[in-house]
Amino acid sequence: MSLKIKTNCLIVSTIILMLLFFQPAMAQRNTKDYSTPAFKPLNDIITQQQKAIGNDAIVMVWTDTLVFRKQLGDFSSRTQAAIGDASSWLTAAAVMAFVDDGKISLDDKVSKYIPAFELYRKNYITIRQCLSHQTGIQYEDTKLKKLFAKKKFASLK
Question: Are residues 26 and 37 in the same domain?
């Protein structure tokens, strides 16, 4: 090989190597501009309601892809936060979405979807009863709580 071919091969190899090296760094860059006029009313509402929303929040709107994102405070789309008792309404909303789609009915037995309910003779419980907390299933305290619980007696005997 001539010196010119070796030099060109080295230059091209270096350029390809640099492109591969910088590809992951450039792939994570967010180039979406959410300040377009289409999102201005939503952006204004979020800014006006920031006091009610709180200091740390993120608002994201998805269709098939992310179309709008607004971050307030230290929250980002990767921040993990405990949702506490919000799982109750979130579960109810998901179940009602399935009901709206006609995939399930509120009067379906839970044992239809969770066969373990039949094993414990709870096959009469419906989804409607679960959502309204009327199943009759009581929460059992742990053994440690039972140990420290006060005993109540009906009489002095």
Answer: no
